[in-house]
């Protein structure tokens, strides 16, 4: 072969290779769908799907990614109409806030994404669209959302109002120094679940609460019975939605909303709750759990706890009456689910070395001053804004020209 023929062959091969590469690139960056002539490329779809995979979102991720990117285009179009912009500082703050859900800084989160093939632009665009939409919704609907004192009273069940009750499912994961990192990771995964069946499966596998035997499902509870800081979080959930992980004193909780409705009669506000806590050495070992079950089967009232602890250290048993807001949040949550003289064994001490046998002795009725009215007001406002936002997004979708490629 002459040098000339070799070079000609190499040139032809190079052209063919370049053509193939260009073709592949064109395919990658070709439109998957257009929204009012604004393209969503397959590259963006693949990147968003990969991003969802990294943050452990479940489902058909490519379909979800494409649908969400179409919605983001609609949100940005609405932002352009109103002249909405997101400053670099606000974008940075938004990225930091999102990364904090994984207990990371934005830079650490971006580095973790990069290891899994997700570009920083994908994360930035995701956060930017959300921030734009928040401004759009606020500009269009904030003035329409007026929450009256009577509505707050109704939610809390005060001033003679009926109040609300909620139908929840729960996953309660005890926190100890040994399992803290794993427990937080599991809780973050659960918070991204989208179906009742998946949440029920997670409750059966990971929850320490007795509700795990029913897939985490609780009976109807008056909203006012839940610990004050948890009430607004729950109130913002729509049926099927799952909360972010909530920090308790020695556990981490995740809730799924199954229903919300007005109480058939006014809730009884509480001035104090009397309860007992018996601490058993051994944590959640099979032996200690079996001991707790034997105690649970043998006692009928809180007075029986003194007999169980007879001859034991005084500090192992605590029976007291406290204002609801002063009760540790993890114990308060367990008490909210109990009727008088019922027992929970879902909790451990902060070091994991003791199992807590929690018994509800009784509730004292009074005017409910525990819940933070401002938090409940904001939760009601956000719930109504979310409803307006969903309707407006559907309107934008119906008015847009969306073409699948």
Structural description of this entry:
It contains 14 helices and eleven strands. Mean pLDDT is 83; it is low at 1-26 and 367-371. 48% of the residues lie in helices and 19% in strands. Strands 4-3-6-5 form a four-stranded antiparallel beta sheet, sandwiched between helices. The protein has a four-stranded antiparallel beta sheet with strand order 8-7-10-9, with helices on both faces. A three-stranded antiparallel beta sheet has the order 2-1-11. The protein starts with a helix and ends with a strand. The longest helix is centred in the C-terminal third of the chain and has 27 residues, at 373-399. The protein is α+β, with helices and mostly antiparallel strands. Helix 3 packs across helix 6 and helix 4 packs across helix 6. A hairpin with a 2-residue loop joins strand 1 (31-35) and strand 2 (38-41).
Structural class: alpha+beta
How much is the radius of gyration in Å? Answer: 27 Å
**Taking strands numbered 1, 2, ... along the chain, how are they ordered across the largest sheet?**
4-3-6-5
Which runs of at least 5 residues are low in confidence (pLDDT < 50)? 1-26, 367-371
The largest pleated sheet is described as: 4 strands, antiparallel
Element-by-element helix/strand order: HEEHHHHHHEHHEHEEEHHEHEEHE
User: End-to-end distance, in Å?
Assistant: 47 Å
Mean pLDDT: 83
């Amino acid at each position: 072969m002459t040098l000339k023929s070799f070079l000609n062959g190499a040139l032809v091969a190079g052209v063919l290779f370049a053509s193939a590469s260009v073709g592949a690139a064109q395919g990658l960056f070709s439109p998957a769908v257009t929204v009012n002539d604004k393209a969503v490329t397959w590259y963006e779809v693949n990147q968003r799907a990969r991003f969802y995979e990294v943050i452990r979102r479940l489902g058909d991720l490519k379909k979800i990614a494409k649908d969400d990117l179409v919605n983001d285009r609609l949100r940005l179009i609405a932002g352009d109409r109103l002249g909405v912009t997101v400053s670099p500082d606000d974008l940075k703050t938004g990225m930091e806030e999102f990364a904090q859900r994984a207990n990371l800084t934005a830079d650490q989160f971006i580095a973790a994404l990069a290891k899994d093939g997700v570009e920083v632009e994908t994360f930035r665009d995701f956060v930017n669209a959300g921030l734009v939409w928040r401004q759009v919704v606020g500009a269009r609907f904030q003035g329409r959302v007026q929450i009256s004192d009577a509505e707050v009273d109704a939610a809390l069940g005060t001033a003679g109002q009926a109040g609300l009750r909620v139908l929840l499912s729960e996953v309660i994961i005890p926190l100890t120094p040994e399992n803290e990192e794993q427990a937080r990771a599991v809780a973050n995964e659960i918070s991204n679940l989208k179906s009742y069946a998946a949440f029920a499966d997670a409750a059966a596998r990971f929850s320490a609460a007795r509700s795990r035997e029913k897939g985490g499902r609780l009976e109807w509870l008056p909203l006012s019975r839940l610990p004050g800081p948890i009430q607004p979080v729950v109130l913002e959930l729509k049926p099927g939605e799952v909360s972010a992980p909530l920090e308790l004193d020695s556990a981490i909780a995740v809730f799924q909303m199954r229903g919300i409705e007005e109480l058939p009669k006014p809730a009884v506000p509480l001035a104090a709750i009397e309860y007992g806590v018996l601490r058993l050495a051994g944590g959640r070992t099979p032996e200690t759990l079996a001991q707790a079950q034997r105690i649970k089967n043998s006692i009928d009232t809180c007075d029986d706890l003194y007999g169980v602890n007879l001859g034991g250290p005084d500090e192992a048993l605590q029976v007291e009456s406290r204002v609801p807001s002063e009760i540790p949040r993890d114990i308060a949550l367990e008490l909210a689910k109990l009727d008088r003289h019922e027992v929970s064994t879902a909790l451990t001490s902060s070091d994991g070395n003791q199992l807590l046998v929690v018994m509800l002795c009784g509730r004292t009725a009074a005017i409910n001053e525990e819940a933070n009215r401002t938090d409940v007001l904001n939760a009601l406002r956000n719930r109504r804004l979310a409803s307006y936002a969903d309707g407006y997004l559907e309107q934008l979708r119906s008015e847009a020209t969306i073409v699948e490629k």
